[in-house]
Amino acid sequence: MSKIYSSIQKAIEKSRGNQMNSPKKRAKQTSASNKNAGGVSTGIFRMLPFAIPSEEVMEESRIVAATDDRSARTAYNVLRTRLLQRMRSNNWRSLLVTSPGPGEGKTLTAANLSMSIARDVNQSAILVDLDLLRPSVAGYLGINANEINAGVGDYLQGNAKLNDILYSPGDFDRLALVPNRERIENSSDLIGSPRMKDLVSDLQDQAGQRSLVIYDMPPVLVCDDVLALAPSVDAILLVVGQGVTDRAALETTISMLSEYNILGIVLNMSEEKQGGGSYGLY
User: Fold this and answer.
1) Which of 116, 200, 220, 270 is in Cβ range 3.0-4.6 Å of 80 for a Cys bridge?
2) Model's pTM, two decimal places?
3) Which residues contact 216 (CB under 8 A, 6 or more apart)?
4) Distance (Å, rounded) from C-alpha 253 to C-alpha 238?
5) Taking the domain 3-281, which CATH number applies?
6) Model pLDDT for residues 179-221, shown as the tens digit of each residue
7) Using CA atoms, how far apart are residues 277 and 62, in angstroms rounded to an integer?
8) What is the DSSP letter of 106?
9) How buried is 199 (Cβ within 10 angstroms: 0-12 exposed, 13-18 middle, 19+ buried)?
10) 228-275 pLDDT, tens digit each
């Protein structure tokens, strides 16, 4: 068993002991799969402008929806199932995805997890690129910047409405994207603003009971953005990379987030196959 795996187990057990109990404006017609979506209220997913991903770029970015890697698909399906079970048991509907430092796979995990959730006919997901300092969700998906007329940064600065920043990524009927177009320096000021609180509330209200809102955010130790949003979301998912994450950095991150609901820790880049793949949830 690796040192990072042992550290994860100790850190998450300690944390749980401290936690609270708790665009191109083409109209998208409702598809047949949406009509028979197992009782999911499609709500805002029915009519959205398209922001079409590139299959080639997604494959290069290791987005599992664009690959034939069955082990990766299985790993994310297992991650999805375990995560949804924990979320449902607590009636949680918003999730913040972050990591201690850069390069640990948080955006990849957020994107793949969102797509995996959207493949469940009983669920839907909204993926929000809230890494204002280094927006990368659209880049990972290969979405052309010309297809994004407004993003989350525009909304937070008062230059767009909610309906202006929601997009459909093509074939995923139960997935919506809120991309970000450009780097914003005063990120924590915006994330701590009343405008951000309105966005969190409005997304949850319009998405419905069977939808999970996932926020991809900067690393905890890079800036204070995560701490600014954490009180407004239900749970936090930490992503760590084997061979990348420093043990001291992980322990510091856990300590900083100890008063919030840490749903679990995803061990990325692991050679130890956990739960059908290299994306174990602890």
Assistant:
1) 116
2) 0.84
3) 97, 106, 107, 110, 111, 127, 128, 129, 130, 131, 137
4) 9
5) 3.40.50.300
6) 999 999 889 999 999 999 999 999 998 888 889 999 999 999 9
7) 14
8) H
9) buried
10) 999 999 999 999 988 889 999 999 999 999 999 999 999 886 665 444
